[in-house]
Every structure is written in structure tokens, then in C-alpha cells.
């Protein structure tokens, strides 16, 4: 275990320490600074997040310019979100979310409100992240007494999603936009109303997140030609819809869509079609 010397205690969850090479580090962890004193020795492994060199300097500059309570609140939200979403965020969220919360609280006090134009899509495409973001706003209200409109939950969702994609804001925005476009193609091409409350719709959106991520990053899947041939024969309507999506993406984003992507996309669209046909039969019988 690496032993560090505590140089500063920001709050119960954040401390600054030096290693044996005199390098400053910021350590984050629940209760990490509780009952600790400057000069004490602490094990590096007890921290859940460690920032060194430039990251450490950026974080220290932020901490020195905001209330320690804001950083502690931000850290609690991040740990809470990672636990519920079962993911590990990029380290930079400790900088970006903390800075965002600090600014959001300041402008809310000043009566300045921003309209989140992507709120509706974020709620539809990232329902789990959105639920955690709403809970995060409750945490903020309990700590600060400040109530935020749900538009703010959308901004927090973006921080979660960015942190999942390696803190690439542009990529997360592209992914959300591409999902929106694909859903619109499915709705128009098949002339159906998508039931967003079904399990198959939820599975489709989950698949589209990873599909869009792979497409925009140029990643590829292993091929399965035999299965694709069967899919073409058995799921003609859904496959034709996938071809429409492929043509749109290749034209607009200038990327090639491999056949195996069509295979999985077709399977998810077929499930949506099956749900729609079941609903139609039930309605006709009624």
C-alpha cells in the first residue's frame, strides 16, 4: 500500500496529500477526511478516486474557488449515480459536474433560468440516467434549500452520459441526435406509434445507444452471414426499415454500416413490430 501524508482536508470526502516523491494528489472517498488531521499518514488505496499532476492542479483550483460543501455534494451525487447506474465515470466528472453545480446554484439564486431544448429526448433515451438526475436535484435541494426545474436534470444527464463516453461532450450529443433520427425513421417508415412504455422499446433504445457509439467511433462487430440471410427472409419489413436507416446514416455521417449491424438492428425493430401487431389485434377484437 502506498503511504501518503495528509497536507489539507477540504471536507469529509476530499483531502490533499503528498506521496514519497513529493507529488500532490487529491484523494476522494466517502468519509476519507473524517476525524483526520494534517500530517497523518493515509493509505492511497482507501480513496475511490485519485487525481494527480495536471488533474490535481485543476481540481485544487476549482476547490479553492468554490464552497467545500458544493464539492462534497457533487462527490456524493457522483458516487450515488455510479452505484445506481452500475458504471464507472471518467474522472473528469468531478471537475465538470462540480463546476456546473456551482454555476447552476449561483444563477438560480439570481433568478436566471435556462431552457433545456433537449430535455424531452434525454428523458426518452436516457430514462435511468434521468431518474438519477432528478434524485440528484432532490439531494441539492436538501443540502442548499434551492429548488431546480426539471430542465436542470437534463443538464446533469449530459454530465453522466459524457462521463460514460470518456468525457467527450461532442460524441454524447451526436449519439443522442443519431438515436433521435433513427427512432424517427422507424416511426415514419413503419407508420406506427411507438409505445415507449414497453420492454422492447427500452431494449431498442439501449441497443441504439451502443449502435450509435460504435458507428460514430468506427468500431465493428464480428460478421454472421448465415444468421443475416435468415433474418432477411423472415423479417422482411423490419429488414427494409434497417436498410433505410443504413442509407440515411451512410449519406449523412459518411460512415459504412456493416451487415452485422443490420442484423441486430433488424431483430430489435422486429420486436417493436411484433408489439404493434399484438396491440392492433387486441384493439380490433375490442
UniProtKB/TrEMBL annotation:
Residue ranges annotated for the PRD domain, each copy included: 65-169, 170-279
UniProt keyword Repeat, yes or no: yes
Gene3D superfamilies per the UniProt record, alphabetical: 1.20.58.1950, 1.20.890.100, CAT RNA-binding domain (2.30.24.10), PRD domain (1.10.1790.10)
Protein keywords: Repeat
One Pfam match: PRD
Domain of life where this protein originates: Bacteria
The protein, known as: Beta-glucoside operon transcriptional antiterminator
Organism: Breznakia pachnodae
Amino acid at each position: 500500500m502506498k503511504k501518503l501524508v495528509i497536507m489539507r482536508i477540504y471536507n469529509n470526502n476530499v483531502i490533499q496529500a503528498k506521496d514519497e516523491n513529493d507529488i500532490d494528489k487529491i484523494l476522494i472517498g466517502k468519509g476519507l477526511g473524517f476525524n483526520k488531521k494534517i500530517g497523518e499518514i493515509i493509505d492511497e488505496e482507501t480513496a475511490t478516486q485519485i487525481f494527480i499532476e495536471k488533474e490535481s492542479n485543476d481540481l485544487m483550483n476549482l476547490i479553492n474557488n468554490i464552497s467545500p460543501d458544493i464539492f462534497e455534494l457533487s462527490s456524493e451525487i457522483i458516487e450515488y449515480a455510479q452505484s445506481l447506474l452500475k458504471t464507472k465515470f471518467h474522472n473528469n466528472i468531478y471537475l465538470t459536474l462540480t463546476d456546473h453545480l456551482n454555476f447552476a446554484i449561483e444563477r438560480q439564486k439570481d433568478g436566471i433560468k435556462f431552457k433545456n431544448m433537449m430535455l424531452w429526448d434525454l428523458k426518452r433515451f436516457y430514462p435511468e440516467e434521468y431518474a438519477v438526475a432528478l434524485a440528484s436535484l432532490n439531494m441539492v435541494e436538501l443540502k442548499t434549500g434551492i429548488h431546480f426545474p426539471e430542465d436542470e436534470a437534463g443538464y446533469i444527464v449530459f454530465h453522466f452520459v459524457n462521463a460514460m463516453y470518456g468525457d467527450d461532450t461532442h460524441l454524447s450529443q451526436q449519439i443522442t441526435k443519431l438515436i433521435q433520427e433513427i427512432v424517427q425513421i422507424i416511426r415514419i417508415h413503419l407508420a406506427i406509434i411507438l409505445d415507449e412504455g414497453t420492454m422492447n422499446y427500452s431494449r431498442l433504445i439501449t441497443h441504439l445507444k451502443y449502435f450509435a457509439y460504435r458507428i460514430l467511433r468506427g468500431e465493428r462487430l464480428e460478421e454472421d452471414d448465415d444468421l443475416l440471410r435468415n433474418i432477411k427472409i423472415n423479417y422482411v419489413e423490419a429488414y427494409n426499415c434497417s436498410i433505410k436507416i443504413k442509407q440515411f446514416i451512410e449519406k449523412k455521417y459518411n460512415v459504412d454500416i456493416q451487415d452485422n449491424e443490420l442484423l441486430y438492428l433488424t431483430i430489435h425493430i422486429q420486436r417493436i413490430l411484433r408489439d404493434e401487431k399484438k396491440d392492433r389485434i387486441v384493439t380490433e377484437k375490442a
